[in-house]
Amino acid sequence: AMRLPKFAFIGTSAWFFFVVNWLKVPFSANLNLINAASLKLDLMMLPLIALGAAAGILFLRKIPQKIFNDTVQILAAAAAVKLLF
């Protein structure tokens, strides 16, 4: 995974998508995709999001670096193939 340790790779990816998703907020709001109902649902999902983040950290600690690298490479190749077809 770009020769980064797994925590650095996941951390960098998380920050990247955090910034990208915040950049999409004004456009989503302009298209009325963000409203009171969607914000209420977002707030209701926060505990599950936190639980998923904690589970991800625990899982990342247990998976060996080699398996992590191989999995990232396979998923990236699958995504590339999907983009072609």
Explain what this protein looks like in three dimensions.
The chain is mostly helical. The protein has one domain. Helix content is 85%, strand content 0%. It has three helices and no strands. It has helices spanning 6-30, 36-62, 65-84. The chain is extended.
Key words describing this protein structure:
single chain; 85 residues; extended; mainly alpha
Question: What's the arrangement of secondary structure elements?
Answer:
Elements: H1 6-30, H2 36-62, H3 65-84
Note poorly predicted spans. Answer: none
- Mass-distribution shape: extended
Strand content: under 5%
- Succession of helices and strands: HHH
Largest sheet: none
* H/I helix tally: 3
How many domains, as an integer? Answer: 1
Rg value: 16 Å
β-strand number: 0
Structural class of the secondary structure composition?
Answer: mainly alpha
Overall mean pLDDT score?
95
Measured distance between first and last alpha carbons: 24 Å
Helical proportion?
over 70%
Entry summary:
By secondary structure, the protein is mostly helical. It is built from 3 helices and no strands.
